[in-house]
UniProtKB/TrEMBL annotation, chain A:
Subcellular locations according to the entry: Cell membrane
Pfam families cross-referenced by the UniProt entry: BPD_transp_1
Organism, scientific name: Lacrimispora celerecrescens
Residue intervals of the ABC transmembrane type-1 domain: 98-287
Bilayer disposition of the protein: Multi-pass membrane protein
Stated name of the protein: ABC transporter permease
Annotated family: Belongs to the binding-protein-dependent transport system permease family.
Record-linked PROSITE patterns: ABC_TM1
UniProtKB/TrEMBL annotation, chain B:
GO biological process: carbohydrate transport
Native source species: Lacrimispora celerecrescens
Superkingdom of origin: Bacteria
Residue ranges of coiled coil: none
Gene Ontology cellular component terms for the protein in this record: ATP-binding cassette (ABC) transporter complex, substrate-binding subunit-containing
Residues annotated as domain ABC transporter: 4-235
Record's protein name: Sugar ABC transporter ATP-binding protein
Lineage: Bacteria, Bacillati, Bacillota, Clostridia, Lachnospirales
Protein's UniProt keywords contain Nucleotide-binding: yes
Keywords recorded for this protein, A-Z: ATP-binding, Nucleotide-binding, Transport
Gene Ontology terms for molecular function: ABC-type transporter activity; ATP binding; ATP hydrolysis activity
Amino acid sequence: MDSVITTAAKEINRDELEKLKRSATQKALFRRRAGKFALVIVNLAMSIFVLLPLLYAVSIAFMPSSELFTTEMNLIPGNPTLENFRQAMVKIPLNRFIVNSFFVAGCITFGQILSCSLAAFSFSFLDFKGKNLLFMVVMATMMIPGEATIISNYLTVSGLHWLDSYNVLIIPYLTSAMGIFLFRQFYKSFPISLYESARIDGCSNLRFIYSILIPLTKSAIGAMAVYTFINAWNMYMWPLLVTGSDRMRTVQIGIGMLDSVDSQSISMMIAGVVMIIIPSISVFIAGQRQLIRGMFSGAVKG
Amino acid sequence: MASLSFVNVCKTYKNGLTVVKDFNLDIKDREFLILVGPSGCGKSMTLRMIAGLEDITSGELWIDGQLMNMTSPQSRDLSMVFQSYALYPHLTVYQNMAFGLKVHKVPKDEIEKRVGRAAEILHISHLLDRKPSALSGGQKQRVAIGSVIVRQPKAYLMDEPLSNLDAKLRSQMRVELAKIHRELGATIIYVTHDQVEAMTLGTRIVVMNSGVIQQAASPNDIYENPVNKFVAGFIGSPSMNFFPVWVARRGEKICLEFGKNKLIANEICSKRLVEDGYVGRRVYLGIRPEDFHEEGPEEQKILFDVEMKEVLGAEILFHGRINREEICVRLSPNVKAEPGERLPVYVDMDRIKLFDMDTEQNIIYV
Ligand SMILES: Nc1ncnc2c1ncn2[C@@H]1O[C@H](COP(=O)(O)OP(=O)(O)O)[C@@H](O)[C@H]1O
Ligand SMILES: [Mg+2]
């Protein structure tokens, strides 16, 4: 008798316990979801705030000039038009500029990756006399601002009769102290015993580089490539100084040409800007994953 | 396969620290040579100098009659297992093991054959398609050994290759390594700080301390006839007990006295002690834990206070003190004694060692 009652009591208890548990988990789940939702909202608001100038520029590029210069607040074009883009293309040889920029930035990227990774390799894996001194000299070049050397550089290249050619746009930028430094930092986290093991296995330095070092530092190379490409694409001062003809101008200079005194059309200029940021944004998106992984690959041993 | 010799090899760092001092050694073809010593004594450094990863400060290294000091690691034709595995993370186990062969342009079917065989020996055939990140520590270590034994270099260098394995796997791998050595007929130079590995694997053991060779001899010689107190204490587990004792002449006999204990030296010891003028001086007496017995003649008896006992099944280890000196005694499991008791034990006087107080050299070294 007794035992029947106690088991019944237990039965009830268990049911109630079950219910309590379920409601508790539901509450916790709800709280977690609400937290996530709030985060998404905040993030959306922030990203709109940050992107607003860019989005507004894109929107202006599609506006007829008449819409822009009104007292009303026009965020979205009323009659979207491609006229601005057409005008920009007519006014300057933008195609040629884009091709130039791509070619120059591509060559610079390739050259920097090659020279910087090889230099960093010898600084981190090889042992030679004066290694540290040489590295300090390389680093010291980073401390001289580019503006300070630009005149003498100009005189040098003009002495070589390189002005207004691809040579002058590409060759001075084929290596960079920053790149060497970054690659060396990446290689520092590379286990030296892998290098030693490969050497004992009979591997030459070059073979080690292409069959082990490059596959293992792909993300660093990707990150460097994106960074270098965007930097080269955005170069302004040097190309402005050393190129004179439409044949050799890069896009950043070309955009400057849209801003002439006689015909100022803001919407046309912005259409040009929108056109030239598309390549750099797409390079960034393509390399985004590499870039982020590359940034952290030195931090966490993987 | 090859023979190696070291002539007065030294390694000194720029800051003046000498890590390896005056290293002289001949390693014969097919020898399984063990470098053993406490951590930081320069074993890895010696191995790395053989491999060419470290410059030799002075002295000569000869491999097969050729001076190797200036040869790059790539052209020395050796292969090495690193303490830290050194597997290529982007290659599969198979590719890792085949890498050295590919560099040496071994034909593809030959590579397959050799890798397959090595994988079988090491029980890793089922792992060949995995990346190193998907392996346990023991498996990684076996792959590292595998990528070394597939090659047929002049000599194999191994730097503590079993240090990351658990006890069971380690003893298994010890057996495998001994087998591999026999099958390959290879010259192996093997670094370890584990004296069990040293005793079981080596055909010859080199005991090092602070960069200096203490003794190079067969495992049995090292154990029975250590050249000095360091070697005697380093080899053997639990290690040898040392007591400072007075050497005294009592009538016809030479006695070793410490506290109230008095042991009578045997003929050989007495002769040496008298000849070398140790009578009336103090020396170190060394007794291995297994050289104590439950019974024996009265004049070999000593008493010690038991402080702790470790029951190991086939034997019991008693830890305790004589006077203030610590002592460890290994006895059969039917000895009944508890911590706090005073236990009489009998010393096997034919197996004791005696060491000079100052030089710590073995007085009865033969
Ligand atoms: N780059 C270095 N500079 C100075 N001393 C070093 C350097 N590398 C190692 N040592 C020293 O060399 C000694 C021997 O090291 P090692 O051969 O690795 O010892 P182990 O016998 O444990 O393998 C150690 O005492 C270590 O401190
Ligand atoms: Mg070591």
